[in-house]
Amino acid sequence: MKHLLQLNFSNKNIIILFLLIFLKIDSYSQFEKDSIQIRRIFDMALENGQAYKNLRVLCKEVGNRFTGTKQADSAVNWGYNLLKSMWVDTVYKMPVMVPRWHRGNIQRAYIYHDDIKLNITALGGSVGTKRKIKANVVVVNGIEDLENVGQKNIKGKIVLFNKPFDPKTINVFESYGACVNQRYSGASQAAKYGAVGVLVRSMTLQKDNHPHAGSMSYSDQNNKIPAAAISTEHADLLLEEMRKKPNLRVVMKMNCKTLPDVQSFNVIAEIRGETEPETIITVGGHLDSWDMGEGAHDDGAGIVHSIELLNLIKANGYRPKHTIRVVLFMNEENGARGAMEYAKWVKLRGEKHLMALESDAGGHTPRGFAISAPDSIFNIISGYKKLLEPYGCHVFKKSIWGGGVDINPLKLDSAVSVNPNMILMGFIPDSHRYFDYHHAETDVFENVHKRELELGAGAIGAIVYLIDKNF
Ligand SMILES: [Zn+2]
User: I need a labelling partner for 219 at 20 to 30 A (CA). Which of 30, 105, 313, 354 fits?
Assistant: First the structure.
């Protein structure tokens, strides 16, 4: 009896042991399989990638492509024709009405009497100055400082919003986040206190003499006053001059204006999923850029990353389970109309989204991904860390604000009601140099590094592969 029991017990042990070995082998081989596939994706991106070549054409042949301009139309055609020439199931243009803000040919500022020129650029959406503005200047350290400075010191003056990026903040996107409200709503907030114009310190850590453009918006309650970005060098020059002459006056002259909306397009390409074609993975960047430089990092990099994903899938002979949809969004910079149109369209069709991923943080070395998803899903994705570690892009950060301007409306509006577990993901590259170029004339092809760009394409290819396969 004792003997039999012992035998039974050890039989059970053997079964458990076999089960453990089997499971271990199974999970090990899965990890191995994924490692091999990811290795292939990176090999392809680094050895035979098309991203850098495509970026050169976009930057050098199309150039900058501000929403509503002829160059933006050229960018649409470039994207459409390129995607048509690739191995995809469908390519189409989605019509979208976009705003048309025109910079005009006058944007000047100088210190009166001394004739010291200040390098400015009108902020996107700003009204012009009619004739010109000539006024004293008051300096505030961000919107939060307006109340301290008070109406009696602001009324009738030009407000210089001078809150700088904090150099101690390691992630420069966070510095941007802490300052950008003075660019976006500074004019409308300063108008509340009676300001007549606004200059905003350029959104960069760098001390340079390029004004960095960007969008702004007015609120209906306050006067619309002109707003311009001033280079960091000239913001500091103005401060220095004001120390010598606190009552100096600055002249601002701009003839920018808003014209009626025009038609443009999002460009969309799809590879149909093999087993779950009705479920979508959207990957995109934005096709429009500011009207200076070449929109190389912002967001040419995101555009060629997204297009490259299709190449990487093809080259690896991988047939995705879900439909992979690449979207080249129009008008991220000054309205996000393409994003809203896309979300509306997804809602109308009642489409189920597994994930939307955006690359709109530049073409520098990939670090990982910002993820907005329920905890259970976030934990599964965090489990891929080991697979991406060899490539240095294994930071998975929980995000509360979503994945990017172009994909966030999907969550606000539509897709999430179909799939509450939908993943929004933002590609995170290294942040240290991005704002040297952001929205400035220095955002040109030459400032994008081939290998860094290609590593980014590999990282996006790898994460899309993992999500597609495992969900
Ligand atoms: Zn961008």
Answer: 105
Q: Which candidate, 212, 203, 180, places its Cα nearest to that of 401?
A: 180
251 and 306 belong to one structural domain = no
**Cα of 312 from ligand 1 centre, angstroms:** 23
The whole-angstrom separation of Cα 346 and Cα 328 is 15
Is the residue at 29 inside a domain?
no
| Separation between Cα atoms, residue 302 and residue 285, nearest integer Å | 5
Could you tell me the CA-to-CA distances from 312 to 46, 138, 195, 302, 461 in Å, in that order?
Answer: 11, 54, 53, 15, 7
Which tens digit of pLDDT belongs to each residue from 176-226? 999 999 999 999 999 999 999 999 999 999 999 999 999 999 999 999 999
Number of compact structural domains in the chain: 2
| Residue of 345, 343, 359, 337 lying closest to 403 (CA atoms) | 359
Judge if 95 and 109 occupy the same domain. Answer: no
Whether 24 is in a domain gets the answer no
Hey, what are 151's tokens?
Answer: 């109406």
Ion ligand 1, residue ranges at CB < 5 A: 298-299, 360
CATH code, domain with 135: 3.50.30.30
Residue 158 lies in a domain: yes
Query: How far apart are the CA of 361 and the centre of ligand 1, in A?
Result: 7
Q: Are residues 157 and 212 in the same domain?
A: yes
Sequence-distant (≥ 6) Cβ neighbours of residue 96 within 8 angstroms: 263, 264, 265, 266, 330, 331, 337, 338, 341
CA 354 – ligand 1 centroid, Å: 23
pLDDT in tens, 318-361: 899 999 999 999 999 999 999 999 999 999 999 999 999 999 99
Quote the ligand 1 centre to 279 CA distance (angstroms). 27
110 within 8 A of 216, measured Cβ to Cβ:
no
Q: Is residue 20 part of a domain?
A: no
Distance CA 452, CA 52 (A): 10
C-alpha of residue 300 to centroid of ligand 1, in Å: 9
Indicate if 161 and 238 belong to the same structural domain.
yes
Domain carrying residue 289 = 41-101+260-470
> Is residue 241 domain-shared with residue 328, that is, in the same domain?
no
- Contacts of 161 by beta carbon, 8 Å cutoff, 6+ apart: 140, 142, 143, 182, 183, 186, 190, 198, 199, 200, 201
Separation of 134 CA from ligand 1 center, angstroms?
Answer: 34
